[in-house]
């Protein structure tokens, strides 16, 4: 196992947490973005980033600044801007185009899934599961609550959890799928 593999595993877990939290609450915790920034710094120290670290930091800051303007205009969520900015620093300038392309593709698939979901679910009632006891049933109950909330969001054409697309784009880029 190389020294970078634990960083990649931690990044994957961080993206999974960000995506799950965005689905459940439509927010992305700042701790996810901070963790990705720290992982990027750790990666750069292990791989002797040198001059490329300055380029990665500058590009990451530029991307984040542009996204903050979109956020101020109401076109993007603040958590999405922070997650993309920190992902840019983690992935580096050389993979920025791949990351943005993969994120856009994943976002398109996510939006299409939500449009199809709206067509299928708009007339159906929103079932909320009954409370249950400890253990597995409690976990199933929480999952049922999240699914019921998502059903309501889809039926009402509310916002989509774009953190899922960002996480998918980053994971596709990290895995070399694009």
UniProtKB/TrEMBL annotation:
<feature type="domain" description="Prepilin type IV endopeptidase peptidase">
    <location>
        <begin position="11"/>
        <end position="112"/>
    </location>
</feature>
<dbReference type="Pfam" id="PF01478">
    <property type="entry name" value="Peptidase_A24"/>
</dbReference>
<protein>
    <submittedName>
        <fullName>Prepilin peptidase</fullName>
    </submittedName>
</protein>
<dbReference type="InterPro" id="IPR052218">
    <property type="entry name" value="Preflagellin_Peptidase"/>
</dbReference>
<dbReference type="InterPro" id="IPR000045">
    <property type="entry name" value="Prepilin_IV_endopep_pep"/>
</dbReference>
<keyword id="KW-0812">Transmembrane</keyword>
<feature type="transmembrane region" description="Helical">
    <location>
        <begin position="53"/>
        <end position="76"/>
    </location>
</feature>
<keyword id="KW-1003">Cell membrane</keyword>
<keyword id="KW-1133">Transmembrane helix</keyword>
<keyword id="KW-0472">Membrane</keyword>
<feature type="transmembrane region" description="Helical">
    <location>
        <begin position="160"/>
        <end position="177"/>
    </location>
</feature>
<feature type="transmembrane region" description="Helical">
    <location>
        <begin position="96"/>
        <end position="116"/>
    </location>
</feature>
<feature type="transmembrane region" description="Helical">
    <location>
        <begin position="28"/>
        <end position="46"/>
    </location>
</feature>
<keyword id="KW-0614">Plasmid</keyword>
């Amino acid at each position: 196992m190389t020294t970078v593999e634990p960083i990649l595993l931690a990044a994957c877990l961080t993206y999974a947490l960000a995506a799950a939290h965005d689905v459940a609450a439509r927010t992305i915790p700042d701790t996810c973005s901070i963790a990705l920034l720290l992982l990027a710094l750790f990666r750069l120290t292990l791989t002797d980033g040198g001059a490329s670290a300055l380029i990665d930091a500058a590009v990451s800051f530029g991307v984040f600044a542009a996204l903050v303007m979109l956020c101020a205009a109401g076109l993007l969520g603040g958590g999405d801007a922070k997650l993309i900015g920190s992902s840019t620093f983690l992935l580096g300038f050389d993979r920025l185009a791949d990351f943005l392309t993969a994120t856009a593709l994943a976002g398109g698939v996510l939006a299409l899934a939500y449009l199809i979901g709206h067509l299928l679910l708009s007339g159906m009632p929103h079932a909320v599961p009954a409370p249950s006891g400890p253990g597995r049933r409690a976990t199933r109950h929480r999952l049922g609550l999240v699914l019921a909330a998502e059903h309501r969001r889809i039926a009402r054409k509310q916002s989509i959890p774009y953190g899922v697309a960002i996480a998918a784009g980053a994971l596709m880029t990290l895995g070399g799928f694009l």
